Amino acid sequence: MIGKLVAFWHGCPAGLKEAYASFAVQSLIALAYSLNRYIGHAASRPGIRRFVPWAVLNLTATFVVHLACLRALSPDYRRSISVTGFPTARGFVLEVLGSLLVFEVLFYYIHRLMHTRLFYRPVHAMHHRMTDKVCLGAFYVHPVEFLMVGFGAFMGAVALTRTHFPTMLFLGVVAELAGLYFHELGEVSGVMSHESHHLRGAKNFGSIGLMDVLHGTFMKTYKMIQFRKVYVSKNLSRLGLHVCDLHQRPESTVNITAYNSTHLLVYASSQDPGT
């Protein structure tokens, strides 16, 4: 069996190797990460079950579009978007840094586009309406947006920087793990907070904060925490809750409902374009 798989892999053209490997790595990471959280954290289970279909849909759509792009590039799939072979150690570092910077630019402007009237309500709003803080929430995205951001920005960065295939896989692993982590466990001290974008739609559009600093849309983590305490406390009285409920992971169905309802109040009042 293993021998057949090895023979199949060696016989695949470069384009198909890129598509198959990308799909397999993305799927396995999402499966392993969500299973770990599902088994070890009971409060995450309802949200994970709810978002599994969206993960399957968006990963499959990305795979199909990836194949279509490769077919357009080369009908026999002999060409790939990434560069075949292995980079040098220096080349690997330069590719990682270069891809990160290019991705930041593409991600920022595509994300800003998602907040225009053309895209916000029909496409991007569904992600902002999400109230479950679970890992697979990263996949609760309209397929159009997932393809533009998750595939377009990422593969655009790979193509523009002439990134090698192994580097592309490494960057894909890092990007997916970051998305899964930040959509459930919030921010890391000293790193740009994605949660602040969900609390204030006009802040933190980028992935690492560079473009936000240049455009004046950067919001520091400590300011996000202050904003959350002040802004959310105005809505908590409707639910009979206290602001400390937002800093605790809910451990029961009742707490989950209250936690999500509180976030729903915040999202509903802060995510229209131009806020």
From TrEMBL:
GO BP, sorted A to Z: lipid biosynthetic process
Keyword Glycoprotein: no
Subcellular location as annotated: Membrane
GO cellular component: membrane
Residue stretches making up the Fatty acid hydroxylase domain: 99-217
A GO MF label: iron ion binding
Domain of life (superkingdom): Eukaryota
Protein known as: Fatty acid hydroxylase
